[in-house]
Design goal:
By secondary structure, the protein is α/β, with parallel strands linked by helices. The protein has three domains: 119 residues, Rossmann fold (3-Layer(aba) Sandwich); 260 residues, Rossmann fold, CATH 3.40.50.12780; 60 residues, ANL, C-terminal domain (GMP Synthetase, Chain A, domain 3). Helices cover 28% and strands 29% of the residues. The chain has 13 helices and 25 strands. The strands form seven sheets. The chain has a five-stranded mixed β-sheet with strand order 11-12-13-14-15. Strands 16, 17, 19, 20 and 21 form a five-stranded antiparallel β-sheet that branches. It has a four-stranded mixed β-sheet with strand order 2-1-10-9. Helix 1 packs across helix 2 and helix 5 crosses helix 6. The mean pLDDT is 93. This is Amino acid adenylation domain-containing protein. Pfam families: AMP-binding (PF00501). GO terms for molecular function: phosphopantetheine binding.
């Protein structure tokens, strides 16, 4: 209980202190009418408050829904309506959608109410199949879709996972957007293994030299980085990378040249390629990178613990080694489905025809990702079979942008593509056909209109 759980600047919380604070907030939520299975939105930046809030919602038997602060408020409001959020946990100075139940942690009356709550654990019974959180991702119809992740999936990511052996004494950086599933790794894996979470402020994330300094000062031993951030920061982080016991990089295809430079100059003890969609809880496969083979891509590796991956053809039959197939992912990490989207859930989450005996209810997630087995058993990623893309670690459905453009006046047809005029420099480009007799709006005007409904990165 006295072990270090969370570090934020000069603040230090032990596991005992963190548990007591989370219990108080959980008791307050129950007192305000939150019940088992309710959704509770969280609009907080990376902070001890965020960790406390996520723990409290789970302790109350509810489902937490992290909101991305950079999203337009209308888009956030849609998410709250879609998940029927009972309340929202936030701070008074933060922009967040209006909702009846509001818990502002920095208000004096809220702090006084929290102080009156019990610090003891709640008697809530939590089933492994119950929904722990809902995370919204880009949707091809123009609306984001909520992915429902069960408790058992988080446990599978953290315990006996086969890819990351965190233990007491380790310190894992928390630098991801709380509304992206990398935060599941950064928060729940340390908490379930006795390691400590180190909150990385946004100002430190934005400046490579400050991030390198923080890694040294806080003795960080583990970290996740998107491919885009890694490619930009690797030269500047330099020797700080060598301090890490494990550096996981993913979210897009790795650049063998940059990986090779890091391995030669400042290798962490383990450099890991992490692959997995939100629908399978952060990671489905990983690969320990020890060398770069000229002319070959870096594989995504093999399934992590309690995970199955099949490469299937168009008839959902296994493909031979070396032949391209679509990745279907099974095991404990598979999501419950998409909230309020039964048809899409049925399309993408299918019965597992290869399930072990006694697991007749097992399902596979149809990823849309293409890959092939190498002779050594590792999987090589080959791309997508649809119009979903990854840019700077952000998962984007091109159809969502097209739908928003199509809804604007004076436009008859729209097409959005990814261009990569220079290697590694991807950008979104929209092609527009105006209505007869109408002029195409200028780019600045279009961006302003789209920002009312889409995040800045789209």
């Amino acid at each position: 209980p006295a072990a270090l759980a969370v570090i934020e600047g000069e603040q230090r919380y032990s596991y005992d202190a963190l548990n007591r604070r989370a219990n108080q907030l959980a008791h307050l939520l129950r007192a305000r009418g939150v019940r088992d299975g309710d959704s509770v939105a969280i609009a907080l930046p990376r902070s001890i408050d965020l960790i406390v809030a996520e723990l409290a919602v789970v302790k109350a038997g509810s489902t937490y829904v992290p909101l991305d602060a950079v999203l337009p408020l209308d888009r956030q409001a849609h998410m709250l309506k879609d998940c029927a959020a009972r309340c929202i946990i936030t701070r008074s100075g933060l922009a967040a959608p209006e909702i009846g139940g509001r818990v502002e942690l920095d208000r004096a009356d809220t702090r006084a109410e929290l102080a009156r709550q019990s610090e003891h654990n709640l008697a809530t019974a939590i089933d492994g199949s119950a929904c722990a959180y809902i995370m919204y991702t880009s949707g091809s119809t123009g609306q984001s879709k909520g992915v429902q992740i069960p408790h058992r999936a988080i446990e599978r990511l953290a315990i006996n996972n086969g890819y990351l052996d965190l233990q007491a004494g380790d310190r894992f950086a928390c630098a991801a957007n709380p509304a992206f599933d990398a935060s599941t790794l950064e928060i729940w894996v340390p908490l379930q293994t006795g390691a400590a979470i180190v909150i990385v402020a946004q100002d430190d994330v934005m400046v490579p030299a400050r991030l390198a300094e923080l890694i040294g000062e806080q003795q960080i031993t583990g970290m996740w980085m998107t491919v885009g951030l890694f490619n930009q920061y690797a030269p500047a982080l330099g020797g700080a990378l060598s301090q890490l016991r494990a550096l996981i990089v993913g979210g897009d295809v790795l650049d063998p040249h940059i990986i090779g430079e890091v391995l030669r100059n400042h290798p962490p003890k383990r450099l890991i390629n992490g692959y997995g969609p939100t629908e399978t809880t952060t990671f489905a496969a990983t690969y320990d990178i020890s060398q770069v083979v000229p002319g070959r891509s870096i594989p995504i590796g093999r399934p992590i613990g309690n995970t199955r991956i099949y490469l299937l053809d168009g008839k959902r039959q296994p493909v031979p080694i070396g032949v391209a197939g679509e990745l279907y992912i099974g095991g404990a990490g598979v999501a419950l489905g998409y909230l309020n989207l039964p048809e899409l859930t049925q399309e993408r989450f299918i019965a597992d025809p290869f399930a072990p005996a006694g697991q007749s209810d097992a399902r596979l997630y149809k990823t849309g990702d293409l890959g092939r087995y190498r002779a050594d058993g590792n999987i090589e990623f080959l791309g997508r079979n649809d119009f979903q893309v990854k840019i700077r670690g952000f998962r984007i459905e091109l159809g969502e942008i097209e739908a928003k453009l199509q809804a604007l006046p004076h436009l008859r047809e729209t097409l959005v593509l990814v261009r990569e005029d220079h290697p590694g420099d991807k950008c979104l480009v929209a092609y527009l056909v105006p209505q007869e007799g109408q002029a195409v709006p200028d780019a600045a005007q279009l961006r302003t209109l789209l920002l009312q409904n889409l995040p800045e990165y789209m």
